[in-house]
Amino acid sequence: MIRFDNVTATYKKNIGIFNISFEVNPGELVFIMGPTGAGKSTILKTIYKDIHIDSGKIFLNNKEISNSSSNLSISNTRNQIGMIFQDFKLLNNRSVYDNVALPLRILGVSNKNIKHMVRESLNKVNMSNYELSYPLELSGGEQQRIAIARALVNNPKIILADEPTGNLDPNISDEILDLLEVFTDNGSAVLMSTHNFPLIKPRNKKFIELSKGRMV
Amino acid sequence: MFINKVIYLIQEGFKTIYRSLIPSIISAITIGISLLVLSVSYYLYINLESFTSDFKNEYKIEVFFDDDLSQEASLNIFNAILFIDGIEDGVFIDKDAAANIFKDEFNEEVTKIIGQNPLPMGGIFGISSDYRSYDSMSKITKEIKYIAGVEDAIFPQESIVKFDRSIRNLLSFSFLIGLFIIVVSYFFVSNTILLVVHSKKDEIKVLKLLGANDLFIKAPYIINGILVGLFGSIISLIMLFLVDNISLYIILPYYEFNSANYNFIVTFNLFFGSFLGLISSTRSINKIYKK
Questions:
Q1: What ranges do the domains of chain B cover?
Q2: Are A211 and A38 in contact (CB under 8 A)?
Q3: Each residue of A186-215: pLDDT tens digit?
């Protein structure tokens, strides 16, 4: 589902990721581990095409995505992925409903289907009573749930989570991980970066350890 | 799918007004004032044109025939002049008519002063509208002077030159003022919209991350610009209606204004207002988008 073949992507000389190869299969939750600056976010950014790679190949759903950098290919790639960020990246001037509906609006889904899909997604994260609330009225954990609902709303087969628990306390972090794990049950592949080893250790999941941009 | 997107983007265009109410109101008022000044300038221009045209109706060429010509020969020359390009009409002046004109102008009878009527026969010729300029009238006068039996042909050269120059200067000045207003309001409005777009920088980033393409991100701001322009033109039309009524009340007793073509003014305001909003918002979103 996600495959890296010897990928190198650099910002400046000696900063970036080097010769990274790994695979994430359908239904798998894989962690990218490492300290700050190890290149965790860079791996995710190369997948959603926020940075270009220097060499190697990246495949999503068996299709190479690293051979084109046009705006259209960037949009198309991002439309296939559900993304979750440490700082949630919710739009504070829009309601929870409007935030979760955003990926569907981008795809041009009809209002009727949007209503159904948004409610379903909010149900999955136990936030169905917050449709009319605004992000700043919610706690950090609740905001992250909304961000997860937004990432899942168009049923993507690939979910990228960039330090989704970085701003949350341990209990809430565990709940968020539980949620992400549930979504692998329906065949989605989840790739999550974190520097919090104690959080992921009990889960016995596959993880990729990075140090200075290289796999350890 | 495409229709759903279009409907959503138009709704977002409206919502952007609500989400950035103060800058939108400031932009709409700026566009409104600019359009009002342009409309009033247009209104003054068409009145100036009609005033100019009234004044130019008085442009005439006076022709004097040789003293020794008979009335029949004079009439022949008069008719020949009527056929010259640029001559619209003419009045034949025989000796008696010339004496009457002399009496009207000097309040004395020429026959009583000199004992006989020495005034030559002649004609006063009106000029077709396309020829009412100094150059054209000089050309016609020269042509008339070449006709055998014509002693002299004159027109008020100095006043025509002065009048033409004044009108030309006034029109150039109005044009420059209009251009200045358009340029200033374009930059003012686009900078105000730029502030709105700038405050949405993070929102634009999130939309990009979620896979929105350029058009999806830009369209609400461009639609917002067009809507702000339309609101501006409505403000301008309301103010114009008030100005029109007030000025008629104040000026009508002294000068009868030509009423403007209201359909043109309404169409101009709506079209130009939305166009100004469109180009201003397009400039702003492109500027932020490149960063």
A1: 2-54+163-290, 60-155
A2: yes
A3: 889 999 999 888 888 888 889 899 999 999
Q: What is the pLDDT of residues B134-168, one digit of tens each?
A: 889 999 999 999 999 999 999 888 888 888 888 88
Q: What percent of chain B has pLDDT over 70?
A: 96
Q: Is the dihedral of CA A139, A145, A148, A152 positive or negative?
A: negative
Q: Domain coordinates of chain A in residue numbers?
A: 2-91+155-215
Match 């702000």 to its residue by tokens.
Answer: B228
Residues of chain B found within 8 Å of residue A74, distances taken between Cβ atoms:
211
Beta bridge partners of A207: A31
CATH of B60-155, picked from 3.10.129.10, 3.40.50.150, 3.90.1070.10, 3.30.70.3040, is 3.30.70.3040
Alpha helices, DSSP H, located in B57-126: 71-82, 95-106, 110-114
Interface touch A93/B19, C-beta < 8 Å = yes
Please judge whether A89 and B209 are an interchain contact, meaning their C-beta atoms are less than 8 angstroms apart: yes
Query: Distance between CA atoms of B11 and A92, rounded to whole angstroms?
Result: 18
E strands in B182-260: none
**Domain A2-91+155-215 -> CATH class:** alpha beta
Interface check A40 vs B, CB under 8 A: no
Are A78 and B4 a contacting pair at CB < 8 A? no
> Is the CB of B211 less than 8 angstroms away from the CB of A91?
no
CA distance A202 to chain B (A): 32
Sheet holding B87-93, edge to edge: B87-93, B122-127, B60-65, B150-154
Q: Position B66: which residue type?
A: D
* Mean pLDDT in consecutive groups of 10 residues from the start of chain A, 216 residues: 93 86 93 91 93 92 83 86 93 94 94 94 92 95 93 92 87 86 87 89 89 90
Q: Tell me the HSE value of B81 on the side-chain side, using a 13 A CA sphere.
A: 34
How many angstroms separate the CA atoms of B82 and B136, rounded? 16
